[in-house]
Design brief:
By secondary structure, the chain is of the alpha+beta class. Helix content is 50%, strand content 14%. The chain contains ten helices and ten strands. The model has no long low-confidence stretch (mean pLDDT 95).
Length: 292
């Protein structure tokens, strides 16, 4: 860790005596640190607004507070521009393999439903809308403007995005997390927690469900079970097709997010490999969707 973040963290007016500061691994958008003083542990998240990724820290703060009020996420202890301090949860982040376990899906799906239904009851201030089709079109414009190596793919990807948007409606609107990677789900041994609200905003529930499935490589049988758990009823072929369209959109967004990060991010992460992996997964999912 550089001296500058260390000094910034140590200067915060909330520590009880001497502290230890340790970087936390795993983040590919923010820099995260575990801080321990004489009486508690906390997580410090460092990260400014990232306009190219539609990340606004005032929205992340409001969503974090609402998620805590809804009982889903740790408490916000402190915030200032570019910095957020949260209660530390003594828990481990899930892996995709753990997410795929049938017993775990039965725990995760009610958590997602609570996110969708309960957070709007607590959210204060102006709220964001996370519309994946706008996001990918904006990414395409930025990639073209910045002469990305991926420019030859953009026309075809945007044509596919248009087809997916038409197929995914009609749209129910809920409050989405919009980044359901396994690492954003914590298990403390008694309950699950949902963390990291960088992309939070109103959306269709099928985006979160599709993201959970695509990020963690659920099987078709698990996907149907997930949808039945969420909707608490058997699902129709029409809903399955709409869901498949949003799952493809989730994979397309993750692919293009990585393409953008290849240009803009300063974090030590192999974005080129991440782009290639997600592009392959998107093409496979789109092929399945197009043959439905």
């Amino acid at each position: 860790m550089s001296a500058s973040p260390d000094r910034e963290i140590r200067a915060l007016p909330l520590w009880d005596g001497e502290i230890t500061v340790r970087p936390l691994s795993g983040g590919i958008t923010n820099r995260n640190y575990l801080v321990e003083d004489r009486s508690r542990r906390a997580v410090v998240r460092l990260g400014a607004d990232i306009p190219v990724h539609h990340i606004r820290r005032d929205n992340e703060l409001a969503a974090s507070r609402a998620a805590h009020a809804a009982g889903l996420s740790p408490r916000v202890l402190h915030h200032q521009p570019g910095l957020l301090v949260l209660d530390y949860i003594d828990a481990h982040a899930l892996t995709p393999k753990e997410v795929r376990a049938p017993s775990m899906l039965e725990r995760i799906v009610p958590l997602i439903r609570s996110c969708h239904r309960e957070i709007p009851k607590h959210f204060r201030g102006a709220a964001a809308v996370f519309w994946v089709f706008h996001v990918v079109r904006d990414y395409a414009g930025e990639l073209a403007d910045r002469q990305s190596r991926h420019r030859p793919l953009l026309a075809e990807l945007m044509d596919k995005a248009d087809r997916l948007e038409k197929a995914a409606g009609p749209f129910e609107i809920v409050f989405g997390h919009n980044d359901l990677l396994a690492a954003n789900l914590l298990d403390d041994g008694n309950r699950l927690w949902l963390i990291d609200w960088d992309y939070a905003g109103f959306n269709t529930p099928l985006f979160d469900l599709g993201g959970l499935a695509s990020n963690n490589e659920l099987s078709p049988a698990d996907e149907r079970r997930m949808l039945e758990l969420y909707y608490e009823r058997p699902v129709s072929d029409e809903l399955i097709r709409r869901y498949e369209a949003m799952k493809c959109a989730s994979l397309l967004r993750e692919t293009m997010w990585s393409m953008i990060s290849e240009i803009h991010s300063t974090l030590d992460f192999d974005y080129a490999a991440y782009t290639a992996e997600n592009l392959q997964r998107f093409e496979r999912a789109y092929d399945t969707f197009s043959h439905m």
